[in-house]
Specification:
The chain has helices at 20-73, 79-99, 103-122. With 124 residues, it is an all-alpha fold. The protein has a domain at 48-124. The longest helix has 54 residues, at 20-73. The model has no long low-confidence stretch (mean pLDDT 84).
């Protein structure tokens, strides 16, 4: 068997049954304190995810805008800067979604924006 063994000790091997009540109270108090730590950890993790989504979306939007401007000035076909600009707009949307806490949607929106920019680059 590959499963974990039971963590409960059989009753015939326990040495002090009269202190079981005190141990459970202490364990419950420690568990309550641990739950507060878990909530703080999860809240900090969510904040980091939002910051990452906003930062990534903003950087990609700025890069796409800069690429659109550089391609518009050059000799590239008109479709190329338009694709970069559209990809930058989609990445900006990803930043907005990240700021609102929709980090999974922001991730996939940023991926879609980069794909639009890459597609536009293929026309060059």
């Amino acid at each position: 068997m590959s499963g974990r063994p039971d963590s409960d000790v059989p009753s015939d091997t326990r040495t002090a049954p009269d202190t079981a009540g005190e141990e459970t109270e202490a364990a419950e108090a420690a568990e309550d304190a641990h739950e507060g730590d878990d909530e703080e950890f999860l809240a900090e993790r969510a904040r980091r995810a939002r910051r990452a989504a906003v930062g990534t979306g903003a950087v990609l939007a700025a890069a796409g805008t800069a690429a659109a401007l550089l391609r518009a000035v050059g000799t590239a076909p008109a479709l190329v800067p338009v694709a970069y600009a559209c990809g930058a707009a989609v990445c900006a949307l990803a930043a907005v979604l990240g700021a609102r806490g929709r980090t999974r949607r922001a991730l996939w929106t940023a991926v879609a924006g980069v794909m639009v920019m890459a597609l536009g680059d293929q026309f060059d």
